[in-house]
Amino acid sequence: MTVLLVLILLAVIVGGVVLYLRARRNRTAALGDQSARPGGPVDPLADHQGVTDIRTVRAGDMIDYGDQLYFVRGSLRLKEGGYSWSEHFLDDARGSRLWVSVEEDPDLEVVLWRETADVTEPGGKTMEVGGVTYRREEDGTAAYVSEGTTTLAERGSVEYVDYEGPDGKALSFERFDGSKWEAGLGEAVALPALRVYPAGSDRT
């Protein structure tokens, strides 16, 4: 009789241990699946690896360049005669005013621009800013169409004067719809180091 009681007691203990281990394993599995549950945090860049064709950029996209992530707030599509190009206004989360211009003339030229207060209007054939000498390259008037957030009208015109400097540096002046001149200092973008993350799922 004593042996039977001992066997029964051992069976109860073993059964309890088995039930405990099963419950613990199920609880661990449930915790591990929390990140996949609907309504949890979602990685906005998880569905694609980005693209390298800067010509596809539009408002809502993100640009990764120079260890900095930029959010594209709006775009200008410009046209002068049979020639067209784009300017995209960026937000770097630090309050800086900057943009990237994209044109094919005929090679693809991409320049990152930052607003400067060191000069206020275009000058003669050469200008010196920050110890760098720039030579006047071209000027004209183009029509633009605005997309997204640009602080400009939906359509209008812009006067521009462009200067070229050494080592991919540039100086540009723009005057939108007869307002005051805006100046920007630019540097050529190293395309292999740039990546675009489209906002929509229709581009890869």
Q: Provide the domain count.
A: 2
Q: What proportion strand?
A: 35-45%
Helical proportion, percent range: 10-25%
Bulk shape: globular
Uncertain stretches of 5 or more adjacent residues: 3-7, 14-21, 28-36
Amino-to-carboxy terminus distance: 76 Å
- Overall mean pLDDT stands at 82
Layout: helices, strands, pairs:
Blueprint: H1 2-32, E1 62-65, E2 68-80, E3 83-91, E4 98-104, E5 108-115, E6 126-129, E7 132-148, E8 155-164, E9 169-176, E10 182-188, E11 195-197
Antiparallel strand pairs: 1-2, 1-11, 2-3, 2-7, 3-4, 4-5, 5-10, 6-7, 7-8, 8-9, 9-10
Describe the structure in your own words.
The protein is an alpha+beta fold and 204 residues long. The protein has two domains: 2-36; 54-197, no CATH class. Helix content is 15%, strand content 44%. It has one helix at residues 2-32, and strands at residues 62-65, 68-80, 83-91, 98-104, 108-115, 126-129, 132-148, 155-164, 169-176, 182-188, 195-197. It has an eight-stranded antiparallel barrel with strand order 2-3-4-5-10-9-8-7. Strand 1 and strand 2 form a beta hairpin. It is globular and about 60 Å long.
